[in-house]
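Supplementary Methods S3. Input chains for the assembly prediction are listed below.
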Amino acid sequence: MDKIPSFQKDHNKLLPGLYMSVATNGVATFDLRFKRPNEGDYIPQAALHSIEHMMATVLRNGPHKEDIVYFGPMGCRTGFYLLSENIGYAEARALIEKALEECLRLTSVPGAKKEECGNYLEHDLAGAKRECAAYLALLRAENKGE
Ligand SMILES: [Zn+2]
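Predicted C-alpha cells for the full assembly:
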C-alpha cells in the first residue's frame, strides 16, 4: 500500500501550530496541532472528546458554517483535523481563533447527554478549556512573530 501524505511528514520535526496539509477537490484539511508529537504530552482523552463537541458545534454555528465539512480529533491525541471548503489559510486561522475564544466562554459541553453522544460520561469541560486556551495563546504568539 502507498504511504499516505500525512505519514510522509517527519513527525520528529513537527511543532505545535496550524498547518494546511492537503487540498483536494476544493476541500482543505487543516491540522490543528496542539502538541508536539511523541514528546509524552498528549491531550487527555476526556478533554479531546469535549473539544471535538465544542469546536464542531461552534464552527457549525459560525460565519463559515456552510463551509465546514468535518472537525474531529487525531487518534494520536496531539490535535484535531478541520476539513473545510472555500477557506484559505489566513481565513481558517482567524476562524479557528474566534472559535477557540467562543469555546472558552461555554459553560457546558454541547451534545453531552446520553442520547446525543457515544460516551457521554467521558467529558471534561475545564480540561478542554485549558487545552484550547493554551493552543489559542500559541497561535496568538505566532501572529506576533514570537
Ligand atoms: Zn461524544
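Residues 14-141 form a domain with the Gyrase A; domain 2 fold (CATH 3.30.1360.80). The pocket of zinc ion is lined by residues 49, 53, 117-119 (CB under 6 Å).
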